[in-house]
Description:
Layout: E1 5-16, E2 19-30, E3 34-38, H1 45-52, E4 60-65, E5 68-69, H2 74-79, E6 81-84, H3 96-106, H4 111-125, H5 140-152, E7 158-162, H6 170-185, E8 189-193, H7 197-203, E9 206-211, E10 214-219, H8 221-228, E11 231-237, E12 240-246, H9 249-258, E13 264-268, H10 271-278, E14 285-290, E15 293-298, E16 302-306, E17 311-314
Parallel strand pairs: 3-8, 3-9, 6-7, 7-8, 12-14
Antiparallel strand pairs: 1-2, 1-4, 4-5, 9-10, 11-12, 11-13, 14-15, 16-17
Helix pairs in contact: 3-5, 5-6, 8-10
Amino acid sequence: MAGDPIVEVEGLTIRFGDFTAVDGLTFSIERGEVFGFLGPNGAGKTTTIRAITTIQRPTSGRVVIDGHDSSTDYLEARRCIGIAQQHISLDKDLTVRQNIKYHAMLHKIPKRVMEERVKSLSDMLGLGEHMDKKIADLSGGWKRKAAIVCSILHEPSVLFLDEPTAGLDTQSRHLLWELVRTLNSHGTTIFLTTHYIEEAESLCDRVAIIDRGKLSAIGTVDELKDIVGKVTVDVSEGSRTVPYHFASREEAKAFAESQGGEFYNIRRTTLEDVFLALSGDAKGRLGRCSGTSWTSRTAWRGGTCATSRGTFRRPC
Length: 316
């Protein structure tokens, strides 16, 4: 998978008047991976996705999709893309089968090919018994599945899933997780945006975090945890609990014991800890030992660190 980028973003910048929504993003997505794209509200996620999927023209920069430059080879780049948006755009008064046929017509897929693909996809995703039900009569999870079938009917190189589990109950969310894994196991590259951090931690091979239009970090979940520290100490400070992150359990334990009578909890760092430390006003803190005394500081305010899989922001 490594070394075979299917999406390449170089210096992507998008401005609206004096406001810079996306500020010089550069990253790539490897063929066959599930790539997570995280960021707080207003960070520039949607604008970035609109640019990558050829909907929004960038102010500057370059996007290449499966070898096709989206500026000079627009139509071929778009043929490589499948999009399942957060707000389902299927016709609720038509059946699942009728919606799929309609999308096949839009993609100019021959009838015989369409019928083969519909059978294959419905069998793979378990849609068979729902094919002749109206969209309006389906649960949220089955509506999402139907929408995803429509988005991959033309066999795109990469599928963009925009918050696919937003608003779903826990059971439906896990069904969608299995769908993502199934599609990926059949060779589909997936670009996933989500506000459920545990979803990205469970599904994604690599994760990028964007904040204020800039890339804060990109790498595997373990690599991202390494930036902050794989062990976290939660310390009660007045009415709030503040996390301090450390490279090892020994360092974390030494820090915790130095807190005297204060309440603390030692645990493994999660992707949510990383997200909070690298986006917005960082609340996580990096613990350091200076001689026999402990100091701390708010973490992750600049600098970079290159790894085998990406570039990371590091503490000052």
